[in-house]
Amino acid sequence: MKNYVSEVYDVSDLQNILDIGRKQAYQLANSNAFHTIKVGSRIKIPKSTFNQWLTGQQTYSNPSVSNKIEI
After folding, report:
1. If phi over 0 gives left and psi between -120 and 50 gives alpha, with beta otherwise, what is residue 32?
2. Burial zone of 9 (CB within 10 Å; 0-12 exposed, 13-18 middle, 19+ buried)
3. Cα angle, residue 26 at apex, residues 23 and 28 outer, rounded to 5°
4. What is d(CA 17, CA 35) in angstroms, rounded to the nearest whole number?
5. Mean pLDDT of the chain
6. What residues have CB less than 8 Å from 51, skipping those under 6 apart?
7. Whole-structure pTM value
8. Do residues 9 and 47 make contact, with C-beta atoms less than 8 angstroms apart?
9. Phi, psi at residue 23, to the nearest 5°?
10. Distance (Å, rounded) from C-alpha 7 to C-alpha 48?
């Protein structure tokens, strides 16, 4: 088996990175602030997309979404 570095975050990763609770992490992941991928009931977040959002370099364009997210 090859060793690889995952290119996606899970919701639990958002919790750890942002030091927020589980409910807040799910609210953020479902807020359309950045691109997410649903795999069954699991939510995956591409690292590059999330990191761009986190640093204010958001490239995900959804006109109904503001860059300011309140959780």
Report:
1. left
2. buried
3. 110
4. 17
5. 84
6. none
7. 0.74
8. yes
9. -60, -45
10. 8
